[in-house]
Amino acid sequence: MKNFFYLILFFISVAAYSQEALDKVAKETCSCVEKKNLDFTKDSNIQAVQMTLGLCIVESFSANQSKFSKKELAEFEGAEGMRKLGEKVAMKMVSYCPDIIMAMGRKYLDDKEGNNGDEVIQGDPIEADPTIEGTITAIEKNQFVTIKVKDKNNRTHSFLLLDYFDTASLYTENKIKVGDTLTVGYSEIELFDTASNDFKYFKIISSLEKK
Predict the structure, then answer these.
(1) Model pLDDT for residues 179-200, shown as the tens digit of each residue
(2) Each residue of 94-110: pLDDT tens digit?
(3) What DSSP character marks residue 125?
(4) C-alpha atoms less than 13 angstroms from C-alpha of 6 in its C-beta half-sphere
(5) Is the pLDDT of residue 178 over 70?
(6) Does residue 122 fall inside a structural domain?
(7) What does the pLDDT average to over 164-188?
(8) Whose CB has fewer CB within 10 Å in the chain, the N or C terminal residue?
(9) Facing residues of 161 across strands?
(10) How many other C-beta atoms are found inside a 10 Å radius of the C-beta of residue 208?
C-alpha cells in the first residue's frame, strides 16, 4: 500500500468493484482508525501508521468477504492483491473520513521530505519485530497465503502474508518451498476469524530470510 497516497493526490478513479461492499469496508476502516487515536505528528512513524491502516482494512475485509464476488476475492489475494484492495478502500475513505486521509497524506509527504533533507527528525527507537526460525512445513493459498513453520522445539507456527515488505519477493518469486529453513519476522494482531466467528490473534509476516 506504499503508493496509495499518490493515487489519492492524483485522483485515480476506482474500478468497477462491488461499490456497496467497498463502501462498507471504507466506513468500518475509518471507524477502526479513529479508535486507534493515531499520532500524525512529525515525531510519529509512518510505517506504524500504514500498518495500522492496513490491519484495519484487513479486519473489515475479512468480516465482509461474502459481499464480494468470487472474481473480486481472487483479485485481492496475496500481497499484490491486498495492495490493490488498500488503494481502492483508501479512495473510498476520502468520502467518509477525509480528515484522516489528508492527515496521513501530509504525514507521508513530511516523512518523504525529511528523508530527502539535510536534517531528519528522529522519533522514538523502533523495536524490532520478534522472529522465529524453523523449517517450512506447508504453504497454503486460500484467501490469504499462510506459511507454516516448525521451530527447533517442534512447535508449528502459522504466519499470514498480508502486506508488502522488503523480502516478500522470496515468496512472490517462488524462492522458498516446503523443507526450506526460514527466519520469519512478524507482528501479532487481533483480527476477526470467520471460521470461528470470533476475534483471535494472528501472526502477520513482516520479513523473511532464507537460510
Answers:
(1) 999 999 998 887 766 677 777 8
(2) 888 888 878 777 766 66
(3) P
(4) 4
(5) yes
(6) no
(7) 90
(8) C
(9) 145
(10) 22
My answer on whether 17 and 97 are in the same domain is yes
Q: How far apart are CA 191 and CA 147, in angstroms?
A: 17
Do 101 and 162 lie in one domain? The reply is no
Q: How confident is the model at residue 124 (pLDDT cuts 50, 70, 90)?
A: very low
3-class DSSP string for the chain: CCCHHHHHHCCCCCCCCCHHHHHHHHHHHHHHHHHHCCCCCCCCCHHHHHHHHHHHHHHHHHHCHHHCCHHHHHHCCHHHHHHHHHHHHHHHHHHHCHHHHHHHHHHHHHHHHHHHCCCCCCCCCCCCCCEEEEEEEEEEECCCEEEEEEECCCCEEEEEECCCCCCCHHHHCCCCCCCCEEEEEEEEEEEEECCCCEEEEEEEEEEEEEC
Report pLDDT for 14. 40
Q: 143 or 179: which carries more pLDDT confidence?
A: 179
For residue 73, give the 3-state DSSP assignment: helix
Terminal C-alpha separation, the chain: 28
Alpha carbons 204 and 162: distance in angstroms, whole number: 7
Residue 16 grid cell? 468497477
Number of domains within the chain = 2
Torsion 62-68-72-73 (CA) sign: positive
The residue range of the domain holding 57 is: 4-116
Number of Cβ within 10 Å of residue 121's Cβ equals: 11
pLDDT of residue 118: 42
